[in-house]
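Please fill in the sequence for the structure shown.

STRUCTURE ENCODING:
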């Protein structure tokens, strides 16, 4: 006869906290928005007050602020949906981020080429 394995009680099993994943994701979105804001601020700093060249930096700062607000709203929505089985994806937020980063990349390259 095989020896009996001891039973594991519920107290011994570490519980999974589903809210931590949402929190880590929200912090990643916040870091991304802060990075976009930092690059945008550098673009504004390098324009020397020229209006047309300052436009991408200004738009980038507006998008960074928007991303910060949307990431907080997404976090609140995600934590309220935990346990319901509802989908958590935000394709519009991803599209907004991709467009913002692409715009800033093109504007940065253009600014470097113009200022030489």
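FILLED IN BY: designer on duty
SEQUENCE:
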């Amino acid at each position: 006869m095989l020896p009996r394995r001891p039973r594991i009680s519920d107290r011994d099993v570490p519980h999974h906290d589903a809210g931590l994943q949402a929190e880590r994701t929200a912090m990643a979105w916040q870091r991304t928005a802060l990075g976009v804001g930092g690059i945008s601020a550098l673009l504004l700093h390098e324009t020397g007050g020229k209006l047309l060249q300052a436009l991408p930096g200004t738009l980038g700062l507006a998008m960074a602020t928007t991303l910060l607000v949307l990431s907080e709203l997404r976090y609140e929505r995600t934590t309220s949906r935990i346990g319901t089985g509802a989908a958590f994806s935000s394709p519009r937020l991803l599209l907004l981020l991709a467009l913002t980063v692409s715009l800033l990349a093109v504007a940065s390259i253009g600014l470097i080429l113009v200022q030489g």
